[in-house]
Amino acid sequence: MQTPVIDAERLILRPLALLSCAGDPALFRQLEHHQACRCGRPWPYSADGAETFVKQQLKKTSAGEQIYHWVAVPRGGDGEAIGIIHFRPRADGKQGNRGFWLAEPYWNRGLMTEALTAVTTSHV
Q1: Which one-letter DSSP state was computed for residue 45?
Q2: Which of 60, 90, 110, 120 is spaced 20 to 30 A from 1 at the CA atom?
Q3: Which residues pair with 69 in a beta bridge?
């Protein structure tokens, strides 16, 4: 199962990979921000918490779990990730299960609505 790149109007959703995250320190800084972690992960994060989170998600995929992960990157920006989206198409009924977090400076702009709409219509 391979996660496709998805183009949205203002974002590019690229597959989550430890390599790409290691090269994107902003992603790890954002993951460690308290407001971004209100989605149920333990707080405070350990020193390697963001890396551990990414490794856990990738482990699920490699174990065969039908789950897709994307890193959200603003189109036309500097390439830094501003959030993560996951989608489990067979969980919780016909629409599947989606989860996400977005760096606080990008809240209230409709970016996650746009990203989730793109994920939903991508037919992964």
Answers
A1: P
A2: 110
A3: 86
Cα 110 from Cα 98, distance rounded (Å): 16
Rounded Cα distance between 54 and 69, Å, is 10
Q: Terminus-to-terminus CA distance in the chain, angstroms?
A: 9
For residue 6, the surrounding DSSP H or E stretch is strand 6-7
Question: In terms of Cα–Cα distance, which of 35, 85, 34 is closest to 57?
Answer: 85
pTM exceeds 0.85 for this model: no
Q: How far is CA 37 from CA 13, 63, 66, 76, 94, in A?
A: 20, 25, 23, 27, 27
pLDDT of 18-55, one tens digit each?
655 555 566 666 665 545 444 445 545 555 666 777 78
pLDDT higher than threshold 70 for residue 58? yes
Contacts of 115 (CB under 8 A, 6+ apart): 8, 11, 13, 70, 72, 83, 85, 100
Q: What values do phi and psi take at 17, rounded to 5?
A: -150, 140
